[in-house]
Write a structure and sequence with these properties.
Length: 387
């Protein structure tokens, strides 16, 4: 049947990366299909943003709780609520933008997977992860049982596609690769003249670790990196700037690092999206010792500014950055500081910024192109005979 009513399950878009996806995708997707009535399930915190969505959007908000109560609420949504709304709205298709497929939907289903914890092993993370063992077991089991029933699974890179197929035995014909463009808050920044806290800092090398605190972002390596930098006499040349909200940081060793090594590491606190452009413009390089990513929007942001990249020697980073990055072992402080020392001696080529922007040509030019691909999958799921 033709696509006339669609349900978008976006209630789990609560992290910085997923929010960026939602803010870019939803307006373009809904505008691309004005004849479709969209029911959109969103986290309550999105209500304050006053989204500028077209008239065919019907929004429903859900409160995000904490701890065990949030887990119970998510189970309620996955097993009952999304299915109830799909029946109530007579949805022709459901698009889930939050990794975990709802159970027993009465309509075709497209799932966007953006959580790398579902496809990377504990061994690859050296035991580091954001999920306790029991939660990890349940969520991976839930995904293993429900994902094969989806009509299409969307990932952002061929790295994620290969891992998804290998880990869960998904039919490759069901897997679609739809990468993202440069985030709107950077793509629309234009000429950045407003100074960031970095601009007045006197050290010649300013490395920006632009990431909220999650264990897979690998802030835990910072104390060892800071100690090694100080031992090698880099304190007078290099400063690492982090962007952690300390109230949301559960690691006392990371918090203590800012107190113990102020000569090499400064925490700026959480950075608003509208301030990211000026922060990158005043940086010497992006520093990202992350352990795993499903995509890596920050890499695109760095490329957009022609900013050198120092990051982890892992499959996702090589896919995103290629020869635009300088790589290190994210679990080895000496390897990281070796890379920082090489960068200090490195002279950025005159054509580096142009090369970095050329690297962006591998990715969509804007959200309209991304929305068109999502809409095509939704149509094919809703009416496979017509396609």
């Amino acid at each position: 049947m033709p696509l006339r009513r669609a349900l978008i399950n976006a209630v789990n878009l609560i992290g910085a990366g997923p929010k960026s996806v939602g803010l870019g995708l939803l307006p373009s997707l809904l505008s691309a299909a004005p004849y479709v009535s969209f029911t959109v399930l969103l986290p309550e915190e999105w209500r304050a943003w006053k989204l500028d969505l077209p008239a065919n959007a019907h929004l429903r908000y859900y409160v995000t709780k904490s701890g065990l109560w949030n887990d119970l609420e998510r189970l309620k949504q996955l097993f009952f609520e999304v299915r109830r709304v799909a029946k109530e709205t007579h949805a022709d298709v459901c698009l889930t933008l939050g990794d975990y497929p709802p159970v027993r939907l009465p309509c075709p289903h497209v799932v966007f997977l953006h959580n790398p914890l579902l496809v990377y092993s504990q061994q690859e993370m050296h035991g580091t992860g954001d999920w306790p063992r029991a939660r990890r077991y349940y969520l991976r089991t839930h995904f293993r049982l429900t994902a094969p029933r989806a009509d299409y699974l969307v990932v952002q890179t061929d790295v994620m596609a290969r891992r998804l197929i290998a880990t869960y035995g998904i039919d490759s014909r069901k897997v679609a690769i739809i990468p993202q463009p440069v985030p709107l808050h950077v793509a629309s920044a234009g000429d950045v003249s407003a100074p960031s806290p970095l601009r007045s800092h006197q050290k010649p090398v300013k490395l920006t670790f632009l990431a909220a605190y999650y264990s897979h972002k690998n802030h835990a390596i910072l104390p060892a990196v800071a100690s090694e930098m100080r031992r090698r006499g880099l304190a007078d040349r290099v400063q690492i700037f982090t962007t952690i909200d300390l109230d949301r940081c559960s690691s006392e060793s990371v918090k203590d690092c800012f107190r113990s090594y102020p000569d090499v590491i400064t925490n700026l606190g959480a950075v608003k999206r509208e301030h990211v452009a000026s922060l990158l413009a005043d940086s010497s390089a992006l520093f990202l010792p992350t352990i795993l990513e499903s995509f890596g929007l920050i890499y695109l942001e760095a490329m957009a500014f022609g900013l050198p990249i120092l990051t982890s020697d892992r499959d996702f980073a090589h896919h995103m950055c290629g020869d635009l990055a300088q790589y290190f072992d994210p679990f080895d402080a000496k390897s990281i500081v070796d890379c920082i020392e090489r960068f200090c001696a490195w002279q950025k080529p005159d054509g580096y910024a142009l090369k970095a922007k050329d690297g962006l040509l591998r990715f969509p030019p804007g959200w309209e192109a991304v929305a068109a691909k999502f809409l095509d999958l939704m149509r094919r799921a809703a009416d496979p005979v017509a396609t």
